[in-house]
Amino acid sequence: MNAHKAAPLHLDAVVVGTGFGGMYMLHRLRGRGLTVKAFETGKDVGGTWYWNRYPGARCDVESVEYQYGFSAEIARDWTWSERYACQPEIMKYADYVAKRLDLRKDIQFNTRVTSAIYDEASQRWTVETDQGDVVIAQFCIMATGCLSASRVPDFEGRDTFAGDTYHTGNWPHEGVDFTGKRVAVIGTGSSGVQSIPIIAAQAERLFVFQRTPNFSLPALNGPMDPAYVEDMRENFMAARARARATNSGSFMQANDQSVFDVDEEERRRNFEMRWEKGGFAFVTSYKDVMNKLEANKLASEFVRNKIRQVVDDPKVADLLTPTNHPLGTKRLCLDTNYYQTYNLPHVSLVDIADRPIERITSAGVVVAGEEYKVDAIVFATGFDAMTGALLRIDIRGKGGLTLQEKWEGGPRTYLGLAVSGFPNLFTITGPGSPSVLVNVIIAVEQHSDWIMDCIDHMRANGLSVIEAETDAEDRWVDHVNEKADETLYPMADSWYVGANVPGKPRVFMPYVGGFANYDNICKDVAANGYRGFSLA
Ligand SMILES: Cc1cc2nc3c(=O)[nH]c(=O)nc-3n(C[C@H](O)[C@H](O)[C@H](O)COP(=O)(O)OP(=O)(O)OC[C@H]3O[C@@H](n4cnc5c(N)ncnc54)[C@H](O)[C@@H]3O)c2cc1C
């Protein structure tokens, strides 16, 4: 229930959420002289990195790329220590940026936005929070994150467990010491894959409950090469500009040969060479890995062999080897010693693919009638991705239409930026935009810049309302689906299609058509009088 309501505050814009998206949007709006306030549920900036403090949490886009690119000074004055920065270092970076831009003075922390309601007569949004704030603003910008609504499946008996429970996406700030403990980890997506080796190093006994094995590639993390650090200090902005002009949006050199352009020996050498580099470079070994099943099969089989080579017990290796989806169609993981962990005598893999968890008892987890007794349970069960954080807010557009009603059959947006029926509401990395399929930092920058340009355009032309047209939205949704259907992505039961949330409509949510293509479409829409939007 809301706290006592304060007198309304009148502003130009409200930003909801202060991860990297909200931080940059706030900076842009303020820089243009708009009155703006941001609300954030957490106690500080950083978003994903504020919440996901589990052991082993780190980015899997290289640190040098996983940073803002809008300011040469901000980039030059920051030095990453590892190829893939750990969560505490990324939080330090968020703090560094917040201080540099003096962001915190316009952010209200510990405050969850509960509703955003549009009034057609005044053309204003009324935004309310769980602290009793009421803000009336022309623009409402949702920077609520694609992976911020953590979820725990509704296991029977979940609340009866007598030990400690944790969710990787809402980890205690003081950390957790598993030394001498018997621990269950449920889930083997990215968070599970990153945390399991570290929890295993502490725990006396570890049971990992796996529904679907995921492909994980070696991160080969390590200290930054000083020569590369120096090179990037000089050349980062140019490298970022080049990356933004590619469809992967990344510094990686994609190979535009087909798997079938080369013979088996050459292919094996190239796969091996990319494997040895570590990171996601392997997926760009050949241009058809993500859109031709036969090509993907060759890459998948290469990775499967690597897993079999590492894991001693052939039965465990089989369980860990993904066979029900093509490589990369579920979010790929990067790991440090993930598969090796299963060779440790105190680590057991419990297959729950065909025999789901029956229930949780006061003493542990029951599968197929067997109770695995543990002191702690770690839920690495992921998020209600892409739509969860938005749908947890009571958002009402024209005619009182709720976003829940509008998206009953799955999310519908124009460009992933706007929703027809919800004027002057923008969604940073909304469904229908590249978001989680690219380096999310470039995605949030591109969206924030586009929104800022759009507001500038409106102000320069005396316009007060922008709304996506239903036709344009319908065409965009079709286009997003067509692009997805050209790839192998829809073949997997992934969180990209909402498969991890029972009852969630199955729609491929991110835009798979490539970052540069998408950016060009957005620019073209703007250059053509905001084609597909009605402005008044
Ligand atoms: C463990 C993990 C690792 C990741 N690694 C990478 C990576 O290597 N590379 C990459 O590109 N992406 C990665 N991601 C994706 C990551 O989410 C993005 O990179 C990026 O941090 C998202 O920034 P954001 O601002 O859009 O959202 P978030 O960082 O999720 O921030 C959204 C904020 O909004 C707040 N919020 C939500 N609802 C409300 C509300 N109603 N009221 C007030 N506040 C609200 C949340 O508390 C949160 O702080 C990772 C995600 C996870 C979970």
Using brief descriptors, characterize the structure shown.
536 residues; alpha/beta; eight-stranded mixed beta sheet; five-stranded parallel beta sheet; 15 helices; binds flavin-adenine dinucleotide
List the helices and strands and how they pair.
Blueprint: E1 9-16, H1 20-31, E2 36-39, H2 48-51, H3 72-76, H4 87-100, E3 107-108, E4 113-119, E5 124-129, E6 134-142, E7 164-167, E8 182-186, H5 190-202, E9 205-210, E10 216-218, H6 226-244, H7 264-277, H8 293-310, H9 314-320, E11 333-335, H10 338-341, E12 347-351, E13 357-360, E14 364-367, E15 370-373, E16 376-379, H11 388-391, E17 394-396, H12 403-406, E18 425-427, H13 440-460, E19 466-468, H14 470-485, H15 515-527, E20 533-535
Parallel strand pairs: 1-2, 1-6, 2-3, 4-17, 6-18, 7-16, 8-9, 8-16, 9-12, 10-11
Antiparallel strand pairs: 4-5, 5-6, 13-14, 14-15, 19-20
